[in-house]
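Why should sequence recovery work at all? Because a backbone constrains its sequence more than one might expect. Tight turns favour small or flexible residues, buried strands favour hydrophobic ones, and helices have their own preferences. The token representation captures these environments compactly. In the example below, the structure is given first.
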């Protein structure tokens, strides 16, 4: 086995010997775990998982040191782990359990989880509770009769939020996960004095790697507080006061944000909140980031760096850094990958890609280039730019190509527009479904769209808009975990209203 295969565990072992009293993990504000204590906790949970005869482990837990310890214990056992996000629907969670062949689940919400298993007639063979540090965890052993053969070497199965209710299980090996973590360790100049605050769920692959593995490789502190304590509730709920307080009181030096969370952070500071004083590296990604948003961050002297990645490539592929940065780009490719472009401009990635998909051995990659579905280009200095999603790009009836992400990105920079989805395939003009910001009126949105249209070429402008019935969320299947729109689901919800608009109005695009 390559020496890098367990580099995270090797780092914990090293620091448990050389700096055993250094805090490795911090949970609820009073809860800390040193590197020495972390090594012991991993051994204990490894023993328990061995006794449970776990073949594939599901983690259905909120952010906490317990989540990290269970994940690391599974790593020690070479036991495949499947994070089960709480923002998944019951149907998606059950699909993941069956698709990956999960036979042991650790949960910190046993009543809800047991009810879900009962609803879907999933038999529980055994149920027991124990402490992982100060958190009570329930271990469910399931009557899993069918074990799908996973690609050889699978260490983690992360379920992507596709356009349907049944997400795909991306199978990744530990060596690949470590390659990405080691690249990020170098790119972000992570150091033992860092304090990384996880705001995104650890069930998100990006946070799992950047928020847990990278700090541990550096001998730093990973701060893993419950979602509510860092301001998150459900899929889209945000208490900005809690988030700002968490960033300040934990003395966080690094964090990872989605564009929506970055916008909230900037708006809070612009409205008078104290800028978190210790931040030195804020990574932003998961969805398209407006250069206007990054320029606002620069004006506030916030160290924000855009990156790009996808689950099939073990998360981060490219990243801006303090030494190499161009606003508008997603940064330079990290050293563990090689990138080339197809004749159509599609980004192809090799070097840290999936083994295959769960339940589909025909998908095994064999170290080929992976077609990302993203359209982009590399400039003369080696910076990567993302233009559009290949499958999202639409062509107007005037033959103009429109990347809806670009228009949506500009719309949501407005303080009056929280979310937007733009459509116009084979039509003379474009329609936007708008989720208004709190207290925004229709007049506010009209004015905002008029201003944004002035910055756009005529074929990309929004001519009409429809008020969304509800926000786009993972729960209603209109948003992925990383904040990307599920366009098919949004289109299906609003197709009749959109069609009515096109019947009522006729606009020429000059």
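From this structural description, the recovered sequence reads:
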């Amino acid at each position: 086995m390559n020496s890098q295969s367990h580099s995270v565990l090797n780092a914990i072992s090293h620091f448990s010997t050389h700096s055993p009293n250094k805090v490795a993990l911090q949970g609820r504000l009073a809860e800390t775990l040193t590197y020495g204590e972390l090594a012991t906790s991993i051994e204990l949970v490894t023993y328990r998982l061995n006794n449970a005869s776990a073949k594939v482990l599901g983690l259905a837990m909120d952010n906490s040191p317990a989540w990290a310890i269970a994940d690391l214990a599974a790593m020690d056992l070479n036991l495949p782990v499947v994070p089960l996000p709480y923002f998944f629907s019951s149907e998606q969670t059950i699909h993941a359990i069956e698709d990956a062949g999960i036979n042991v689940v650790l949960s910190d919400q046993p009543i809800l989880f047991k009810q879900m298993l009962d609803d879907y007639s999933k038999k529980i063979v055994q149920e027991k509770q124990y402490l992982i540090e100060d958190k009570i965890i329930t271990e469910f052993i399931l009557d899993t009769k069918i074990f799908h053969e996973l690609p050889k070497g699978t260490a983690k199965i992360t379920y992507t939020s596709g356009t349907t209710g049944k997400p795909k299980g991306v199978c990744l090996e530990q060596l690949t996960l470590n390659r990405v973590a080691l690249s990020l360790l170098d790119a972000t100049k992570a150091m033992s004095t860092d304090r990384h605050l996880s705001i995104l769920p650890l069930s998100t692959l990006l946070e799992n790697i950047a928020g847990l593995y990278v700090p541990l490789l550096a001998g730093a502190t990973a701060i893993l507080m419950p979602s509510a304590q860092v301001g998150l509730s459900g899929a889209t709920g945000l208490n900005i006061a809690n988030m700002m307080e968490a960033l300040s009181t934990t003395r966080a030096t690094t964090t990872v944000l989605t564009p929506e969370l970055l916008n909230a952070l900037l708006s809070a500071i612009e409205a008078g909140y104290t800028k978190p004083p210790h931040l030195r590296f804020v990574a932003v990604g998961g969805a398209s980031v407006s250069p206007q948003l990054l320029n606002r961050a620069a004006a506030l002297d916030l160290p924000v760096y855009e990156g790009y990645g996808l689950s099939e490539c073990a998360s981060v592929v490219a990243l801006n850094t303090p030494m190499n940065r161009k606003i508008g780009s997603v940064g330079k490719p990290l050293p563990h990958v090689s990138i080339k472009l197809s004749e159509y401009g599609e980004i192809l990635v090799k070097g840290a890609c999936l083994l295959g998909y769960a339940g589909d051995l025909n998908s095994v990659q064999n170290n080929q280039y992976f077609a990302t579905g993203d359209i982009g280009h590399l400039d003369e200095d080696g910076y990567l730019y993302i233009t559009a999603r290949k499958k999202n790009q639409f062509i107007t009836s005037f033959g103009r190509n429109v990347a809806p992400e670009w228009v949506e990105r500009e719309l949501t920079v407005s303080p009056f527009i929280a979310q937007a989805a733009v459509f116009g395939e084979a039509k003379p003009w474009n329609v936007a479904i708008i989720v208004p910001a709190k207290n925004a009126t229709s007049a506010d949105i009209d004015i905002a769209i008029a201003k944004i249209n002035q910055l756009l070429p005529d074929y990309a402008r929004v001519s009409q808009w429809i008020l969304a019935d509800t926000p786009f969320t993972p729960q209603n299947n209109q948003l992925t975990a990383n904040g990307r729109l599920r366009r098919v689901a949004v289109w299906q919800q609003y197709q009749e209203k959109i069609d009515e608009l096109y019947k009522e109005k006729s606009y020429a695009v000059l």
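A few observations help interpret the result. The CA atoms of residues 176 and 440 lie 45 Å apart.
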